[in-house]
Amino acid sequence: MAAQVSSGQGVGASLQRKEDDRLLRGRGQFVADIRLAGMKDVAFVRSPIAHGRVRGVHVPEELRDRVVVAADLEGVKPIQAVSGLQGFKPSDQPILAYEKVRQVGELIAMCIADTRAHAEDLAALVELDLEELPAVHDMLAARQPGAPLLHEQWGDNIFLETFVDVNMEAALDAPIKVTREISTARQSMAPMEGRGTVAYWDNRMGQLVLYTGCQMPHIVRTGLAECLGLDHHQVRIISPDVGGGFGYKGILLPEDVCLGWFAMRCGHPVRWIEDRREHLTAGANCREHHYRITGYADRDGRLLGIDCEATVDSGAYSSYPFSACLEAAQVASILPGPYDFPSYRCRTWSVATNKCPILPYRGVARTGVCYAMELVIDAIAREVGMEPHEVRLKNLVRPEQMPFDNITRKHFDSGDYPEALRRAIAAIDVPAIRARQARPEPDGRLIGVGHAIYCEQGAHGTSVYAGWGIPMVPGHEQATARMTPDGGLELRVGVHSHGQSMETTLPQIAHEILGIDVAKIKLVHGDTEYTPYSTGSWGSRCAVMAGGAVATASREIAKLAEGIGAHLLQAKIDQVELVGGAVVGPSGSVTLEEIARTWYRRPQNLPDGVDPRGLEVTIGHKPVRDSGTFSYAAHAAVVAVDPELGDIEILDYVIVEDGGKLINPMVVDGQIFGGLAQGIGTALYEEMNFDASGQPLASTFADYLLPGPTEIPAPRLEHMETLAPYTEFGVKGIGEGGAIAPPAVIGNAVNDALKRYGVELLHTPMTPRRVLEAIRNAPVREDRGPEAMENMRGEFA
Amino acid sequence: MKPVNFDYVRPRDVEGALRFIANDERAVKIMAGGQSLGPMLNMRLVQPDLIVDITGIEELRQVEEKNDTVVFGACITHADIEDGRAPDVTRGALRTVARGIAYRAVRNRGTIGGSITHADPSADWISILAALGATVTLRGPEGSRSIPIENYIMGALEADLRPGEMLVSVTVPRLSAAARWGYYKSCRKTGEFAHAIGAFLIDPERDVCRAVFGATESRPIVVADARRLLGDSSAPSAGFDSRLADELVEAGGMADPIDRQIHVAALRRAVEQAGAA
Predict the structure, then answer these.
(1) Domain check: are A644 and A777 in the same one?
(2) Confidence check: pLDDT of A789 > 80
(3) Residue B266 with chain A: CB contacts under 8 Å
(4) Residue-number span of the structural domain to which A435 is assigned
(5) What is the rounded radius of gyration, in angstroms, for the C-alpha atoms of chain A?
(6) Phi, psi of A596 (to 5 degrees)
(7) Quick one: which of A45, A447, A463, A473 has the fewest CB in 10 Å?
(8) What's the number of CA atoms in the CB half-sphere (13 Å) around residue B175?
């Protein structure tokens, strides 16, 4: 069996990223960098209205060969993402709209020209005859009887309603009861690179080749093949360098299907590069949740129950493959978070509205859930007159309970949640903040401290997803490991690396086992032609699943190499061992280079009985339990709120994270920092607003605010390391965590700062206007005029 | 998001540019840096037949320092002022404000004349130049005329340009040694368009005291005799009259109380800065 030798390159080493050599020099190859001979550009005619009947699409006769409309797409199936959950109502997402349009930006026609500008010229010549219907853009209104219907045959606008009740009655008499209405805004994932597709038909291979920046090439292949009626072998998906995915690039878009269909017929490559207006208004939307939530507790702050009605704005269609109930259906199961309490009730609705489909975004459902739950915990703390962290410490699952099955039967694998919180509270120094709050600030601002804690279920597998019945269910994750004749190693995986740093971290895992220099280990990914089937990169699963598969495959390679090594050393198999890149036996050793050279180039030196598998293996992996890893973190922040202008500044930010064994700690830090930036965007900046007719109001980054470098604090980051019991090396998924807590943390800090007014902010983003409106509406003050505001400066309780 | 086809010329002198814009058969747009026009072209919000790029005109790249003024050519960039390549007669006001305009990439190409003529109410130059008492000079088929900048801005994205006219320069008065100024911009992130701007100048030697509420829905609200905002005391900020300020912005057309609150606060902070300067 292989033995480990520390080399500074293996699991736990903060190795510099191999992929940065090209990415930081501007030599990455993204979809928009691809130039193919004869390639033409596509622009789409999109619906200008949110809801309407399509009475006609008039294409000037001379443009008929350059404009594709729905009637042209004979035999093409709409996109369907059906959930197997009881009562789910499926939607057909048309590739090009016919009969009806149900969102602004929905595709109506595809125009092809030699440049994008000319394609846009053509699009301007297509005349639409649309009969506008009343639109519904508010998910609560959409739930009401009499609301305009998106999919008339349903009879209502509900994709799915779920209900769970665990002994709720028992908590209803609790002495403390706080009810809040809490919501998170609709957002856009806004990766640096938007979507893009280049498609052509390869005559020699008999294949539709589609380059598209995507997180899950194999799933897109399946979905595309089904829409176009092709066999899987006739579709090849290549996902090259990808400039951020965050969930948006896990989706099969109608644009992909359109381009694929056309490429099969036109005899030249076509491409579509999403522009930012398309991205913001027509495609990349996420996050919009609404909660009506009640927390029940006793007077000592012990949580007795949570009762919640959660509504998620799913938009117009169920997206492939995650479906329209990805968020709401998870809300019910993850709302309890890391708390142990006896009574629970949750009803959820996934509601159809005349907006783009809601798509997964880093921290799927968890960000909203954490925000709702943690705001309620703080409200309970204020109600019972305790410090919020004291209330949390009373209710968190304790380390001696691990492994722990919570009230929704989530299986917490390991960890010490109270310790993470205690460390965060110590680092942010709550007593010092309380002392500071007793004095007026020289600049008149109000100081607040807040924190939150969450768990991040990652890499959940078959047993979790089988029940959902969506188009994909993850099974064994496979990896191929193949030694090359010079002693190097190729790893092939079906997940995709676009920021996860897997070109570095997966070789680190193989190195840990085989001792081959990381520089000589190459990761092949992002191409269905070259990689084993996988559901791809989502759900914080790659380190656990692909990492585990690479470890398993590397161990198989070690065994095969030991077999060949034993022959060469004229030793028995149980007398040899792979150590530091060489097979060592009683009489000497032979390097992996020599073993590879012998197998590939000097087979005459091997006996007939040698294992015919050689030095190549494809093998699947599942953790011992596939219910998911539970990483977790406590975040804490200090903010200053300007009561005159409503501005919020983050003065300090602390994260204490437990990701189990970290394969590359530097990469993990980067993941957490990036997630934090997005979480701060959710908390303070990002909001996709709509007017009453369903028109999106943010179509550029002047209207849709993203935090920039000057808005993101330098967080203080501490790691804990509780090894996951079921995974290779004890690794846990942490890819999304940074984005989960910030709205709750900053929200609690802002509410702490504003508690002198007796008001709370319960909606993200916490904009200056929302801060000022809350203060003006404060129950404890009558006069809200400018003089009163001025008097309030410097006045402290 | 690609522009429609258009023709492009880059004349060498103002007369050449005026000849192109005199053509009223074609839709003509002047480009002086393109930092606002570029995105508008890409989004097809403007679809001109002809773009006249005036950045090749030497006269518009000149700065002339006189005894009591400095005259900036229309194509002086924000970075020219930020970096001190253009002389400063405002005791650092223009240089400080320049540093806060959008992002450095925008400042490298964006020009003072282009920004003013684009007439976005939240543009920094409009507010600070109005506080400083700057004038703009326009040239057209009828000759030249100069008007105060606050009169040039007629509303959101609307400048007082007559047919065939273009802005050629901005004249900024030289502040006296005792002058003090303040500028406060309320926005949520670096580079964002401002939600409120307060700009203030007190120059007792020249008997000037001006205040501007900027980043309104329309033209800036200019208080030409701003001493009345300071109450009885001659020291700025000692008695800033928030109620009067609130009345002034309300009279200026600002109905929303929160908008008024942040505009009043921004001006008060600008006044306080001037007091501390």
Answers:
(1) yes
(2) no
(3) 645
(4) 369-454+630-792
(5) 28
(6) -65, -45
(7) A463
(8) 24
Q: Are residues A592 and A637 in the same domain?
A: no
pLDDT score at A785: 45
Question: Given CA atoms A558, A563, A569, A571 in this order, what sign does their dihedral have?
Answer: positive
Distance from CA of A703 to the nearest CA of B (A): 9
DSSP per residue over A460-485, as a string?
--HHHHTTT--S-----EEEEEEE-T
Task: Work out the pLDDT band at A252, boundaries 50, 70, 90.
Answer: very high
The reply to whether A584 and A647 lie within a common domain is no
Report if residue A714 sits inside a domain.
yes
Nearest CB among A702, A772, A787 relative to B242 is that of A787
Same-domain check for residues A538 and A440: no
User: A786 to chain B, minimum CA–CA distance in Å?
Assistant: 6
Residue A512, in any domain of the structure: yes
Chain A partners of B260 at a C-beta cutoff of 8 Å? 786
CB contact under 8 A, B190 and A711: yes
- Segment (H or E) for A345: strand A343-351
* Residue A779: cis peptide before it, omega within 30 degrees of 0: no
pLDDT band at residue B239 under the 50/70/90 scheme: confident
Residue B244, chain A, CB below 8 Å: the answer is no
Clarify whether residues A604 and A480 are in a common domain: yes
Alpha-carbon distance of A499 to A244, in angstroms, equals 6
pLDDT tens for each residue of A616-646: 999 999 999 999 999 999 999 999 999 999 9
Render pLDDT for B245-262 as a digit per residue (tens, 0 to 9): 999 999 999 999 999 999
Residue B263's closest chain A neighbor by CA? A645
Confidence tier at B24 by pLDDT (50, 70, 90): confident
pLDDT of residue A786: 45
Domain boundary residue, one of A594, A621, A648? A621
Closest-CA residue to A736 (of A656, A688, A679, A661)? A679
Mutation to test the B interface, candidates A642, A645, A648, A703, most B Cβ within 10 Å: A645
Radius of gyration for chain B, computed over Cα atoms and rounded to the nearest angstrom: 19
CB contact B238 to A (< 8 Å): no
**ipTM score:** 0.95
Whether residue A598 is found in the same domain as residue A541: yes
DSSP string, A702-759: TTS----GGGS---EEEEE----SSSGGGB---TTGGGTSHHHHHHHHHHHHTGGGT-
Q: How many domains does chain A have?
A: 2
Do A716 and A688 have their domain in common? yes
Cβ of B39 under 8 Å from any chain A Cβ? yes
pLDDT at A468: 85
Mean pLDDT value of segment A534-551: 97
Domains of chain B: 7-53 (3.30.43.10), 59-172 (3.30.465.10), 180-276 (3.30.390.50)
Q: Of the candidates A591, A621, A651, which is a domain's last residue?
A: A621
* Residue in chain B nearest A277 by alpha carbon: B1
Q: For position A792, what pLDDT does the model report?
A: 47
- The residue of chain A with its CA nearest to that of B184 is A645
Q: Is residue A231 domain-resident?
A: no
Indicate whether A710 and A590 sit together in one domain: no
Taking an 8 Å cut-off on Cβ atoms, the answer to whether A769 and B258 are in contact is yes
Q: Per-residue pLDDT for A787 more than 50?
A: no
The secondary structure of residue A3, as a DSSP letter, is B
CATH code, A494: 3.30.365.10
Which residues make Cβ contacts (< 8 Å) with residue A241, sequence separation at least 6?
Answer: A22, A23, A28, A29, A30, A213, A498
Q: What is the mean pLDDT of residues A314-335?
A: 95
The CA distance from A733 to A632, in Å, is 10
Q: Report yes or no on A341 lying in a domain.
A: no
Contacts of B257 in chain A (CB under 8 A): 776, 784
Mark yes or no for CB contact A707/B3 under 8 Å: no
Half-sphere exposure of A470 toward its Cβ, with a 13 Å CA cutoff? 23
| C-beta of residue A252 within 8 angstroms of C-beta of residue A193 | no
